[in-house]
């Protein structure tokens, strides 16, 4: 039986960022997602950085409007407001006020986006989020150039309580062999908490989960695939706690990774 999925990172809202360009694309993405087994999506348009003009109320309103259209079109997909938040100064105050959105708008989990070309320390940010009762989820670490150069930085982050969201397409090689290798290695190390689509359209970066689910099951097992693609993202969508900071016993050591997967 096909698994049912929840997606906590998807650029489904029309004409608000670099995701769906119009309503027609949003509806086509929604239909594609449902056909692949996705029943709930937290919509995550970019906020802050180059998209500082996107406000929390705007995203909430667009989410409600799109849900009404989905319902009227008979597309059985639940959508919830959220954001893909670029890390910058003043972010926490905006999260607390609601100007910047947490996932599902529960003020429990925030999807954190680093600049793609670099990594910088997150300890102080995670500490400040803790004080506000908010848990950080790092989006697509396997695609970050700094983490690709220095993957051992991921271990203390997870031990610190930062949750990790890997892109479904990374497991299929969509973002290149290096990101695929790091994503698979993170799985083997127990460093992944969520698989999400980070979908932007219907021709590339599509809202598909099934193949990634099957790949996780192949690398690890069916139970872990269900945790990462269904159970954990559903918990976040409902504002509930997800187990973090505990890594499973590594199936492949650091030495094996660095000796066979050096960055050029």
Can you describe this structure?
By secondary structure, the protein is α/β, with parallel strands linked by helices. The protein has a single domain (5-260), classed as Alpha-Beta Barrel (TIM Barrel), CATH 3.20.20.140. It contains ten helices and nine strands. It has a six-stranded parallel β-sheet. Strands 1-2-4 form a three-stranded parallel β-sheet. Helix 7 (177-189) links the parallel strand 8 (163-167) and strand 9 (194-196). The longest helix has 17 residues, at 56-72.
Strand content: 5-15%
Number of strands: 9
Structural class: alpha/beta
Q: Indicate the percent of residues in helices.
A: 25-40%
Work out the radius of gyration.
17 Å
The biggest sheet amounts to: 6 strands, parallel
Could you give the order of strands across the largest sheet?
3-5-6-7-8-9
Named CATH topology: TIM Barrel
The string of secondary-structure elements, in order, is EHEEHEEHEHEHHEHEHHH
Average pLDDT, rounded to a whole number, is 93
What would CATH call the homologous superfamily?
Answer: Metal-dependent hydrolases
* Number of helical segments with 4 or more residues: 10
Number of domains: 1
CA-based shape? globular
CATH class: Alpha Beta
Query: Can you tell me the CATH architecture?
Result: Alpha-Beta Barrel
């Amino acid at each position: 039986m096909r698994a049912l999925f929840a997606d906590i990172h998807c650029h489904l809202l029309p004409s608000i960022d670099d995701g769906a360009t119009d309503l027609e694309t949003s509806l086509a993405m929604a239909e594609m997602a449902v056909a692949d087994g996705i029943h709930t999506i937290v919509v995550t348009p970019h906020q802050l950085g180059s998209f500082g003009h996107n406000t929390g109320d705007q995203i909430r309103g667009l989410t409600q409007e799109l849900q009404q259209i989905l319902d009227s079109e008979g597309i059985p997909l639940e959508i919830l407001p959220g954001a893909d938040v670029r890390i910058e100064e003043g972010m926490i105050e905006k999260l607390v006020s609601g100007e910047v959105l947490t996932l599902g708008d529960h003020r429990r989990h925030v999807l954190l986006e680093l600049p793609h070309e670099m990594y910088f320390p997150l300890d102080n940010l995670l500490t400040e989020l803790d004080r506000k009762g908010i848990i950080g989820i790092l989006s697509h670490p396997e695609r970050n150039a700094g983490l690709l150069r220095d993957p051992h930085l991921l271990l203390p982050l997870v031990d610190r309580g930062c949750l990790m969201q890997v892109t479904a397409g990374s497991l299929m090689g969509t973002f290149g062999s290096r990101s695929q290798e790091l994503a698979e290695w993170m799985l083997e190390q127990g460093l992944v908490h969520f698989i999400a689509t980070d979908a932007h359209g219907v021709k590339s970066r599509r809202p598909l989960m099934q193949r990634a689910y099957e790949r996780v099951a192949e690398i690890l097992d069916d139970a872990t695939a269900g945790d990462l693609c269904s159970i954990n993202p559903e918990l976040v969508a409902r504002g509930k706690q997800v187990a973090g900071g505990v890594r499973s016993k590594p199936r492949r050591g650091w030495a094996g990774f660095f000796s066979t997967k050096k960055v050029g």
